Amino acid sequence: MIKKWSVSYPAVNGTEQRRVYVYLPTMYEAEPDRRYPVLYMFDGQNVFFDEDATYGKSWGMADYLDYTDTPLIVAAVECNAGPNNERLVEYSPYRFDDPQYGHFDGKGAATMSWFIHRFKPFIDRNFRTLPDRGHTFIGGSSMGGLMSLYALLNHNDVFSRAAALSPSIWVSPEKLDGLVGRAKLEPGTVLYMDYGSREMGNHDGMRKGFAEMCSKIMIRGIHLTSRLVPGGTHSEASWEKQLPFVIHTLMYELD
């Protein structure tokens, strides 16, 4: 079951209405006393419905979770669809310059503040969640993957597990490296992170950069599941194929 509505969101260009999607697991109504972990996701328009997806293809998340009877709530918010790449501003923790698109003032910290202080409390009030850190996850792809990694590191007191698919770690790599090194991490922090073999050429040195990032994360004691996806591309169709790995990692040995 997927519930869908709009919320007032403090976007970079002023308050606007954003679509919110909440997936409830197959047993949610039949077991009225049961509570569930929550996976928060970026780019919500791409998570469930092809007709809402930016490029006409979604992750098919609900189909997979229904098929596997996974006891998980998924709460997703659509991205900024502004014509001037506002999504890159909203989904970047750091200021950065891109040779193709220009300069961006990263507002990712404000985005995460809304997720943590506004969106999560609303979800916890209105659905049968397990609101503690150990059952609160975050995930996304591309810039949403970067934000998921940032959230796990910078807000480890809120999120215990994350999934970062094709994360845009090329954005301000020095600042991201610094965050990895100084982040205050709880024991048992879990991360799924991947990159497609056919998207490695999108940015110079991506294979080396990805390998180095994985190494730094593992040194910090994070339980990392890292993959180079054979034939993987930068697309929802490719990310959909990774859902068995993603969900298995997030739900593995969960109390």
TrEMBL record:
Domain of life where this protein originates: Bacteria
Gene3D superfamilies to which the protein is assigned, alphabetical: alpha/beta hydrolase (3.40.50.1820)
Pfam families the UniProt entry points to: Esterase (PF00756)
Keyword field: Hydrolase
InterPro entries to which the protein is assigned, alphabetical: AB_hydrolase_fold, Esterase-like, Mycobacterial_A85_antigen
GO MF terms held by the record: hydrolase activity
Matching PANTHER family: ENTEROCHELIN ESTERASE-RELATED (PTHR48098), FERRI-BACILLIBACTIN ESTERASE BESA (PTHR48098:SF6)
Name the UniProt record assigns to this protein: Alpha/beta hydrolase
Species in which this protein is naturally found: Faecalibacterium hattorii
Organism lineage: Bacteria, Bacillati, Bacillota, Clostridia, Eubacteriales
